[in-house]
Amino acid sequence: TGIGKCVAMDLARRNARTILACRSRERGQAAVEEIRAATGNPAVVLRLLDTGSLASVRAFARAVLREEPRLDVLVNNAGVTGLPFTITSEQLEQTFTTNYLGPFLLTNLLLG
């Protein structure tokens, strides 16, 4: 939704293979279908990713590096605000992990 969906729509309009990295399978698949229909680009795909979980970030990065021949652009725009103080299963604060640590780790893992 929001900025991420707009960026994905623009990339798909430019005929780019576009990976939507989403926490929710249902919302992500709905966005994929909407973007494909609006752009005519069938190369829009969904991959599940929760930047609030470093295990999820690592699994996503492994899959992208294994499945994609190259990665030209990475847009980190996922984030949360207003969550109550929560500690993740990895013993990290949830908002900080989701907004900073997860995207930082993802970027570094995808650099190759």
TrEMBL record:
- InterPro entries xref list: NAD(P)-bd_dom_sf, SDR_fam
Keywords for this protein: Oxidoreductase
Q: Name one GO molecular function term.
A: oxidoreductase activity
Q: Which family does it belong to?
A: Belongs to the short-chain dehydrogenases/reductases (SDR) family.
Q: What is this protein called?
A: DHR13 reductase
State the organism of origin: Sapayoa aenigma (broad-billed sapayoa)
